[in-house]
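Students often ask why inverse folding is considered easier than folding. One informal answer: many sequences map to the same fold, so there is more than one right answer. In these notes we will look at a single instance of the problem. The structure comes first.
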């Protein structure tokens, strides 16, 4: 590993670890899938927050456009501005690399883990898949990537959604993005 004190921000000098000379930033690497990057980043954020803010749950950490890191958090007592400020302060490393947004989940709460889906069985959700799934009769099947309906089940391997096309089971590995929707 090589170290550098140059930062992409003008006038800011912070140590940066680079895997090799000429290595691309994570958001420019074509060999890493977006989900892999986000998962590693989210796992790191969860680990660090668990030490100082153990009751804070990281619902989703996503990089947008390679420059903005959006982190949705939740807390048993609700998310306040003061909590968002504390989390922002604790994520100082991320503030060096990204424009950081820390927010409550809002009414369209992201669903990213099996426990999230189980908690909201019976509620309406929108699920976008990585690959199109055939919906309809075999002779009239059409490819669909987005499903909205009632979340009727959630196991360790898949969710079950009662959508317009009927009951559909979607493995977690096929889910690109999902969130609750207003009734």
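Output (designed amino acids):
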């Amino acid at each position: 590993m090589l170290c550098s004190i140059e930062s992409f921000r003008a006038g800011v000098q912070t140590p940066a670890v680079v895997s090799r000379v000429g290595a691309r930033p994570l958001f420019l690497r074509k060999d890493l899938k977006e989900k892999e990057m986000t998962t590693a980043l989210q796992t790191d954020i969860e680990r660090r927050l668990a030490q100082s803010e153990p009751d804070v749950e990281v619902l989703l950490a996503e990089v947008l456009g390679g420059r903005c890191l959006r982190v949705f958090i939740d807390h048993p007592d609700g998310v306040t501005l003061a909590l968002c400020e504390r989390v922002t302060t604790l994520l100082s490393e991320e503030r060096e690399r990204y424009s950081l947004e820390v927010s409550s989940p809002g009414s369209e709460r992201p669903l990213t883990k099996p426990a999230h889906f189980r908690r909201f069985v019976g509620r309406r959700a929108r699920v976008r898949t990585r690959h199109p799934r055939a919906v309809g009769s075999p002779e009239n099947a059409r490819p669909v990537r987005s499903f909205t309906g009632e979340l009727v089940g959630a196991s360790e391997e898949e969710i079950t959604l009662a959508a317009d096309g009927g009951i559909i089971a979607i493995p977690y590995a096929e889910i690109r993005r999902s969130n609750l929707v207003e009734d």
